[in-house]
């Protein structure tokens, strides 16, 4: 921790040898020296007269935060001309003897002719005011700023270059933010034939080239160029087929069509790209991003430095495989081809995958052994997660059985008619099932999830993007290879993609134009993070699995300990494991209660006492910190309730709407519990562990959903389908059905076609 002007801030280790730009976005967090270039469109208001003060304040706040982390920040700013234009216009109005008009009304002002203002004069009038504004804003964060005005000649004169370099280094050494701008009041025209001639030469004809020149001169790690567009597009932004380029490589400019420049400013996107490539050649990483969008401008600079997928990142290192955007497009195209196959062909792919899981058992277990050894050596996984990571022969056999169940049950999943209506004579409407589109499944420490989810996506005709945890990298790689091998028998290899790039989960959740549904499989923290990060993409899943078992006063002695043991101890890390045990008050200090406690002790289950349970005991176990706790281990909470009604109320208050159980021989009490508990799965005299797609006969599941929309509980094939409407007519138009038209609506329900009995 360092202090500057009594404000503490964290200093991060940022040193690195300059000379080579960062290869990946994730490395940008190591940038020590950063130049932020603010384009005219970012700094100025929409009317080009005056500054966008709120936006500028937000940028200053972000720069100050990074400066206070121990980084060396520099700003190349536009805005002097716009600020000066505002001041000069005001002065002209006053000097034309309109003071009287100001008092008599605005109508006379509207008729005043304001001459065209010369840019150099505007710059001269605006520089001091612009700098005063920056100084006032940085003062709020106890940071000092200094102004430097340069021209192209300052870089061509060797002595001036050295002086400029020395001044900037001294300012950075003193923790001062240099604010640099071209001296537009005296700037000469650019020198001919001096642009992009080599690493040491670029003419300063706008602030883009100035920022690039400065970044290379100062051996800067990162140059952030903020404009009024999201980044670099493969065609002019706003055109129908324009796509944002995530990563731009030298040599790609031939595939890009540049549009016109922004509403203000000297350069355009072509000038920015040229400057960016020149800086990249000089060893500085570059990101071009939008600094004007109200939803992102408040954190765009810090997001870039944190390595988030914002704007266009310039890199000299091309990845070996496709980008995640390309993978998503491949998955969509492959999914559509998959959906067009005959049901028997999709089933054949799944049967083939099931066979490969058993035939290639040794290779799979060998890869899984590598993952387990690496995880144990690094000590980064808790025991429950290690259990999830582990594969075995029995697990693979169970997987194969589950996949064959999926194949058998998927024969009429896609294209099934679920409603037929005769709208009018010769006008028939059908509602049929269709795939959702492209699914993104993010899973942790569970390689067995990959073939399960792949089989469900294949059966439902969906394209699939898989993002597994790095702790299961070897296992996931071979399982994905086998999945693609199975898909290849019908030429749809690309329908299932495994994301191997350094994409952060948060970045994947922003691909709302490429992904239709996100399904997280992992810890409650992972699910919460994804639900928070998803931008316009629905998330199917549950953030917690706080499952309850209520032991009623009429419970069977023989059933209680069996069900509780299985619910808690069979697989305590599962999301459908018992976490809170509710006991009817009349059972306290009875032989049945003693049997429950003895069984939990034998199974080495740590008990936490709820507030009411603790009040009944002289020496109680540790009192629970929260009744909303998912332990995921051999631990559980015990609480006392007075009735089934109170048990239901407790579940609604502290549960997660996952799975809840009643143990009782009283049918009336059981039915009350089943009807009133508002959870995805509610059981009577059965273990919570039955809440599973395989055990439900779904073959497998992509997850358990506690959502109330679309799918709830274990989600199998049906939960991965949506519907579309097919209308078949014969020259029908709506006006024929008007009051004086010739046709009438019938709206007759028609019989559904017979489902495949096989």
Automatic annotation (TrEMBL):
List the SUPFAM superfamilies hit by this protein, alphabetically.
Answer: ALDH-like (SSF53720), Carbamate kinase-like (SSF53633)
Q: Which NCBIfam families match?
A: P5CS, PRK00197.1, proA, proB
Q: Give me the Gene Ontology terms describing cellular component.
A: mitochondrial matrix
Q: In which pathway does it act?
A: Amino-acid biosynthesis; L-proline biosynthesis; L-glutamate 5-semialdehyde from L-glutamate: step 1/2; Amino-acid biosynthesis; L-proline biosynthesis; L-glutamate 5-semialdehyde from L-glutamate: step 2/2
GO molecular function terms listed in the Swiss-Prot or TrEMBL record: ATP binding; glutamate 5-kinase activity; glutamate-5-semialdehyde dehydrogenase activity
HAMAP family xrefs: ProA, ProB
UniProt entry tagged with the keyword Cell membrane:
no
Q: Which subcellular locations apply to this protein?
A: Mitochondrion matrix
The UniProt keywords, alphabetically, are:
Amino-acid biosynthesis, ATP-binding, Kinase, Mitochondrion, Multifunctional enzyme, NADP, Nucleotide-binding, Oxidoreductase, Proline biosynthesis, Transferase
Pfam families annotated for this entry? AA_kinase, Aldedh
Which is a GO BP term held by this UniProt record?
A: L-proline biosynthetic process
Q: What organism does the record attribute this protein to?
A: Picathartes gymnocephalus
What chemistry does it catalyse, as a reaction equation?
Answer: L-glutamate 5-semialdehyde + phosphate + NADP(+) = L-glutamyl 5-phosphate + NADPH + H(+); L-glutamate + ATP = L-glutamyl 5-phosphate + ADP
Q: Which family does it belong to?
A: In the C-terminal section; belongs to the gamma-glutamyl phosphate reductase family. In the N-terminal section; belongs to the glutamate 5-kinase family.
Q: What is its EC number?
A: 1.2.1.41, 2.7.2.11
> Could you confirm whether the keyword NADP appears in this record?
yes
CDD domains the UniProt entry points to: AAK_P5CS_ProBA, ALDH_F18-19_ProA-GPR
Please report the stretch or stretches of sequence annotated as the Aldehyde dehydrogenase domain.
Answer: 323-588
Q: Which InterPro entries match?
A: AceGlu_kinase-like_sf, Ald_DH/histidinol_DH, Ald_DH_C, Ald_DH_N, Aldehyde_DH_dom, Asp/Glu/Uridylate_kinase, G-glutamylP_reductase_CS, G5K_ProBA
Its assembly, as annotated, is: Can form homodimers/multimers.
Role played: Bifunctional enzyme that converts glutamate to glutamate 5-semialdehyde, an intermediate in the biosynthesis of proline, ornithine and arginine.
| Official protein name in the record | Delta-1-pyrroline-5-carboxylate synthase
Report domain Aspartate/glutamate/uridylate kinase positions: 32-290
């Amino acid at each position: 921790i360092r202090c500057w002007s009594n404000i503490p801030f964290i200093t991060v280790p940022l040193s690195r040898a300059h000379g080579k730009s960062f290869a990946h976005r994730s490395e940008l967090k190591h940038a020590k020296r950063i130049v932020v270039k603010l384009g005219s469109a970012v700094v100025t208001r929409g009317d080009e007269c005056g500054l966008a003060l709120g936006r500028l304040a937000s940028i200053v706040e972000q720069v100050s935060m990074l400066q206070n982390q121990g980084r060396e920040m520099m700003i190349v700013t536009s805005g002097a001309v716009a600020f000066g234009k505002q001041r000069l216009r005001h002065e002209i109005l006053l000097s034309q003897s309109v003071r009287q008009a100001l008092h008599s009304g605005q109508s006379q002002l509207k008729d005043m002719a304001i001459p065209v203002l010369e840019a150099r004069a505007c710059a001269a009038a605006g520089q001091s005011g612009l700098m005063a504004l920056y100084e006032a804003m940085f003062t709020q964060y106890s940071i000092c700023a200094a102004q430097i005005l340069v021209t192209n000649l300052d870089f061509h004169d060797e002595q001036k270059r050295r002086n400029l370099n020395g001044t900037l280094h001294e300012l950075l050494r003193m923790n001062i933010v240099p604010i640099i701008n071209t001296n537009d009041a005296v700037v000469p025209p650019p020198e001919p034939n001096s642009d992009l001639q080599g690493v040491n030469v670029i003419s300063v004809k706008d602030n883009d080239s100035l920022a690039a020149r400065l970044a290379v001169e100062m051996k800067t790690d990162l140059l952030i160029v903020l404009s009024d567009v999201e980044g670099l597009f493969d065609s002019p932004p706003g055109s129908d087929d324009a796509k944002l380029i995530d990563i731009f490589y030298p040599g790609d400019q031939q595939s890009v069509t540049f549009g016109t420049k922004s509403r203000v400013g000297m350069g355009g996107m072509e000038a920015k790209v040229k400057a960016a490539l020149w800086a990249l050649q000089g060893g500085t990483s570059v990101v071009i991003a939008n600094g004007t969008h109200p939803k992102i401008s408040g954190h765009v600079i810090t997001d870039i430095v944190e390595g988030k997928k914002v704007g266009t990142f310039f890199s000299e290192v091309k990845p070996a495989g496709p980008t995640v955007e390309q993978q998503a497009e491949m998955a969509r195209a492959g999914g559509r081809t998959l959906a067009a196959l005959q049901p028997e062909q999709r089933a054949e792919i799944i049967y083939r995958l099931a066979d490969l899981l058993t035939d290639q058992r040794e290779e799979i277990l060998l890869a899984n052994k590598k993952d387990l050894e690496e995880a144990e050596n690094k000590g980064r996984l808790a025991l429950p997660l290690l259990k999830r990571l582990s594969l075995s022969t029995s697990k693979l056999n169970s997987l194969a059985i589950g996949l064959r169940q999926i194949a058998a049950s998927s024969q009429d999943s896609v294209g099934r008619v679920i409603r037929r209506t005769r709208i009018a004579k010769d006008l028939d409407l059908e509602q049929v099932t269709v795939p959702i589109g492209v699914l993104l499944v993010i899973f942790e420490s569970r390689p067995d999830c990959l073939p399960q989810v792949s089989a469900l996506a294949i059966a439902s005709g969906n394209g699939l993007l898989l993002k597994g945890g790095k702790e299961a990298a070897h296992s996931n790689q071979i399982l994905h290879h086998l999945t693609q091998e199975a898909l290849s028998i019908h030429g749809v290899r690309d329908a299932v993609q495994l994301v191997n790039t350094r994409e952060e989960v948060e970045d994947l959740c922003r691909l709302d134009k490429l992904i239709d549904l996100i399904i997280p499989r992992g810890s409650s923290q992972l699910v919460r993070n994804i639900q928070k990060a998803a931008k316009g993409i629905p998330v199917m899943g549950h953030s917690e699995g706080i499952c309850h078992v209520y032991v009623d006063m009429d419970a069977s002695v023989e059933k209680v300990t069996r069900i509780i043991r299985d619910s808690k101890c069979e697989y305590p890390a599962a999301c459908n494991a018992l976490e809170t045990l509710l006991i009817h008050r009349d059972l306290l200090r009875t032989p049945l209660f003693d049997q429950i406690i003895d069984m939990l002790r034998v199974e080495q289950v740590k008990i936490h006492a709820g507030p009411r349970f603790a009040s009944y005991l002289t020496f109680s176990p540790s009192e629970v910190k929260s009744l909303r706790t998912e332990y995921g281990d051999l631990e559980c909470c015990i609480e006392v309730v007075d009735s089934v009604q109170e048990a239901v109320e407790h579940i609604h208050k502290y549960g997660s709407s996952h799975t809840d159980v009643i143990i009782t021989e009283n049918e009336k009490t059981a039915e009350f519990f089943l009807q009133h508990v508002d959870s995805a799965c509610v059981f009577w005299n059965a273990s919570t562990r039955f809440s599973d797609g395989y055990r439900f006969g779904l073959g497998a599941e992509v997850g358990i959903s506690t959502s109330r929309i679309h799918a709830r509980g274990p989600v199998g094939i049906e939960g991965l389908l949506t519907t579309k409407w097919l209308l078949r007519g014969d020259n029908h138009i709506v006006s024929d059905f008007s009051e004086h038209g010739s046709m009438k609506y019938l709206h007759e329900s028609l019989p559904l076609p017979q489902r495949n009995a096989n």
